[in-house]
Amino acid sequence: MFDYHNYLKQPDALSFDEALALYQAIYGVLENPDADLHDLWQEVITAALAYTKMRTEWNFWSSEEKAAKDPLRTSLHNTFIINLTAFHRFCGKLELDDSWLAKLGPVEQRKKWGDFAGYLVCLETIRGR
Length: 129
Hints:
With 129 residues, the chain is mainly alpha-helical. It has helices at residues 4-8, 16-29, 35-58, 63-93, 100-104, 110-127.
């Protein structure tokens, strides 16, 4: 059974509060009306949706299914990372606050970045009410 408190003890864990702070910082940036910025953000969310859908389904697959689909899962994860990084770079190009990414940690902390994708989907779902 999943235990959120045990998850938080892991070195690469991302708490809900940390994810929310990142999300709010990003939405501060998105007050800028630049259309390309908003298009890039939509690409981030689209990639997060694709990755988290597969990651959620992962819980129900057999070992054989996981082995067969692992390359696609990795590819979807990479796409999310690439899109979030591109969005971050574009924030810098527009001279907007881009300090939020450092709080997520280095890209080598792939699990943490993947968890952030899940939090993004959760928060965007709530925002859509």
